[in-house]
Amino acid sequence: MIGRPARGHGFTVAEVVVALSIFVLILVGIMQLFEPSSLGYQAAQHTLSGPRNGRAAMDVMARQIRMTGYFPENIDTDHGNDQSNSVELATDAALAVAGDLDGTGVSNTFLFCLEGGSLRRVQGPRGAPSSYTCRQGAMLADGVSRLRFAYYDANDNPVPNPSTAAYELDGQAPGGPPSFATTTQRAAVRRVVMTLTATEAVPNQPPQTYTLTSDVRLRNP
User: Fold this and answer.
1) Which of 10, 127, 155, 191 holds its CA 20 to 30 A away from the CA of 135?
2) Where are the domains of the chain?
3) Is the peptide bond before 43 cis (omega within 30 degrees of 0)?
């Protein structure tokens, strides 16, 4: 006698709905568990981005300022193109230096300054008016509220002495090509201390303020 075929086993619609509901509840619970960690990680990354960007900008400035006065024109056989006056402008809030600071083989002016909350670097030909105008520069870091420079001579004495802000060494400031009729103070600079203060907006937290300092000695006075 042939037996009846076995009845197939499966899930009813109600069982599927219940299983899916349980799965969704578990998934929502997992997401709620990890969401604070994710938000905290994002906030931490955002918090770090400000100091990281500021530190990168300070590293660029320090590296190029350190090479101030490196004039390839002065070591070739053509003495008609020799360069001088490596520190072109030096105030408590801006610094313009000259030399082959980026390894191109040509001496240029590099102005470091603050414009509208942005730390900027202007690079251009020596003596060109645009080379001494901050708004012409490329942005190195944003959200900067304060940029200060302090200068010292070979014996670590402040220049000027006393260095009461605001000061402009030899009376020269950004905005146009400097005069070199008097270079006593600028020629004495052998060390530059830079201080940068910036504020970083962090989601769901008060704004974070940080300050970075870099101490640079000139290699080619």
Assistant:
1) 191
2) 53-217
3) no
Of the pLDDT bands very low, low, confident and very high (cuts 50, 70, 90), residue 95 is very high
With cut-offs at 50, 70 and 90, classify the pLDDT of residue 50: very low
Q: How far apart are alpha carbons 75 and 192 in whole angstroms?
A: 25
Give whole-number Cα distances, 197 to 141, 154, 185, 200, in Å: 11, 27, 26, 10
Q: Is-contact 107 71, C-beta < 8 A? A: yes
Binning pLDDT at 50, 70 and 90, where does residue 6 land?
Answer: low
Residues in CB range of 75: below 8 A, 6 or more apart? none
